[in-house]
TrEMBL record:
Gene from which this protein is expressed: Tlcd2
Domain TLC: 1-175
Protein name, per record: TLCD2 protein
The organism of origin for this protein: Oxylabes madagascariensis (white-throated Oxylabes)
Coiled coil: none
Residue ranges crossing the lipid bilayer per the database entry: 53-72, 78-94, 114-136, 148-169
Topology with respect to the bilayer: Multi-pass membrane protein
Length: 175
């Protein structure tokens, strides 16, 4: 069960990630679908497939899963938990900017690498593990089609994030 501290302002979400969500949450998830759609189209049009296929695949899974939450007005709380993963994206994007600026051998890059790794573990790996656990524990309360989509989504996202974590470790810490 989610601790009340995590959802202090909306404690009902700690018991119901299917139907309960705070005001504005549905809009946030809908805007997130729009962002992922826009980013998907931008990558599709402006990058070579061999450079972007993993992110295109990732975005497809997110668009489908979040799209279900938006259309059904259910699982919005679960989608909010999934958005915690994106906190780490700040540091992944900053890492990319520092690489493009050729600032790899700077204290800023090193600090970002450490923060990136820490937020990766907390906001990607731990969040995905928690979501997988929640889905498994609540499998009897989730319709089979929704459970299948969620299970496939987690089965895709978890290995992708483990592989990316390995690549980050290898690139930034084990050169």
């Amino acid at each position: 069960n989610l601790s009340p501290r995590r959802f202090y302002l909306h404690p009902e979400m700690s018991k119901d990630l299917v139907g309960a969500h705070p005001p504005g949450a549905h809009s946030l998830v809908a805007v997130s679908v729009g962002y992922f759609l826009e980013d998907f189209v931008d990558m599709w049009c402006n990058q070579k497939l061999h450079q972007s296929w993993e992110l295109l695949f990732h975005h497809s899974v997110v668009i489908i899963c979040f799209g279900i939450a938006v259309l059904l007005h259910q699982y919005v709380g679960f989608a909010l938990v999934a958005l915690l993963v994106e906190i780490n994206s700040i540091f992944l994007h900053l890492r990319q900017i520092l690489l493009m600026a050729n600032l790899v051998h700077t204290a800023c890059y090193r600090l970002n690498s450490l923060v990136n790794l820490g937020t990766y573990v907390v906001f990607r790996i731990a969040t995905l593990a928690w979501m997988t656990r929640w889905l498994f524990l609540n499998r009897h309360n989730v319709p089979p089609a929704t459970y299948a989509v969620g299970t496939v989504g987690m089965a895709i996202m978890t290995p992708m994030n483990v592989i990316l974590f390995y690549r980050l470790l290898r690139s930034d810490f084990f050169k």
